[in-house]
């Protein structure tokens, strides 16, 4: 019996009115064409604790091991992470 494939989940903390967030989301969506991962997008302004934690650092991309990048998508780092986890 084959095991269930590992589902890699990335979480992006951002804002709806943030052009850097839009750019990172677009880059991650493009990466999803060649790599299998789920992307959860959380609006930091929906929760005071998240807003306090991430503030002006958005967008912040987080994997199971912690932060992968913020402000701009680090494609090489995300690809390395996906290879390591997957």
List key phrases describing it.
86 residues, alpha+beta, four-stranded mixed sheet, 4 strands, 37% helix, globular
Helix content: 25-40%
The major sheet is characterized as: 4 strands, mixed
- According to CATH, the homologous superfamily is Glutaredoxin
Number of domains: 1
Overall pLDDT score: 93
Radius of gyration: 13 Å
Per CATH, which architecture? 3-Layer(aba) Sandwich
| Number of helices, counting only DSSP H or I runs of 4 residues or more | 3
- Looking at CATH, which topology would you report? Glutaredoxin
Q: How many extended strands?
A: 4
Characterization of the model:
This protein has three helices and four strands, in the order βαβαββα. The protein has helices spanning 19-32, 48-54, 75-85; strands at residues 9-14, 38-43, 60-63, 66-70. It has a four-stranded mixed beta sheet with strand order 2-1-3-4, with helices on one face. The longest helix has 14 residues, at 19-32. The two termini are 19 Å apart.
Brief overview, please?
The chain has 86 residues and is an alpha+beta fold. Helix content is 37%, strand content 24%.
